[in-house]
Amino acid sequence: MSQPRRLQTTYLIVSGAATARRVPGLIASLIPRVPNLMTVLTPNAERIVSPRELALAGEHRIVESFFDDAILPRPPHGVLVVAPCSFNTLNKIAQGIADSLALSITAEAIGRGTPVIVAISVNDPLWNHPKAKQSAQTLRDWGVTVLDPVLDQHGWLTMAPDEAIIEAVIAAHACD
Q1: 8 Å CB contact between 86 and 15
Q2: Across the strands, what pairs with 38?
Q3: How many domains does the chain have?
């Protein structure tokens, strides 16, 4: 009987939601708790948080190209988390659109059936948009763990707390 394959990589896909400003702290918290962290930004995420800023968060690899040695010839199997997941990225994932490196890696992970976690980060009007709920349900139907946005201390919707995201990632690794 063959041994199950260990998921030795954790991908952090960062999209262009305002909560991308929280990602350096999320990275710093993930590094000691997960294997081989790779961070990939969508083009819109780079307008909010820079790869240089993320590089200062600790030991992880920022993948910026389809030709990066870390993902050639194919991205290694692993747990993938999209945090934050903007309205745009949520709907693209649910439609199977892979028009960037980050979305291509996400689509491949879903297609392989490896664990995918999506932490949605949208405001009230976007969360109330019928497409947001439909896309979140589509991802759930595909077996993706979806963390809905939560209210912050001011009553505004925001991405789930970092600890909830980290717990979901650790649980996904433990199921391996």
Answers
A1: yes
A2: 11, 61
A3: 1
Quote the domain boundaries for residue 169: 10-174
4 inside domain: no
In the predicted structure, residue 142 carries a pLDDT above the cut 80: yes
Distance CA 30, CA 27 (A): 5
DSSP letter for 56, please.
Answer: T
pTM, rounded to two decimals: 0.93
CATH number of the domain at 125, please.
3.40.50.1950
Residue 132 included in any domain:
yes
The answer, yes or no, to whether residue 4 has pLDDT greater than 70, is: no
Q: Is 3 domain-assigned?
A: no
pLDDT of residue 7: 54
> What's 96-140 look like in SS3?
CCCCCHHHHHHHHHHHHCCCEEEEECCCHHHHCCHHHHHHHHHHH
Note whether residue 5 is domain-resident. no
Q: Which pLDDT does position 109 carry in this prediction?
A: 95
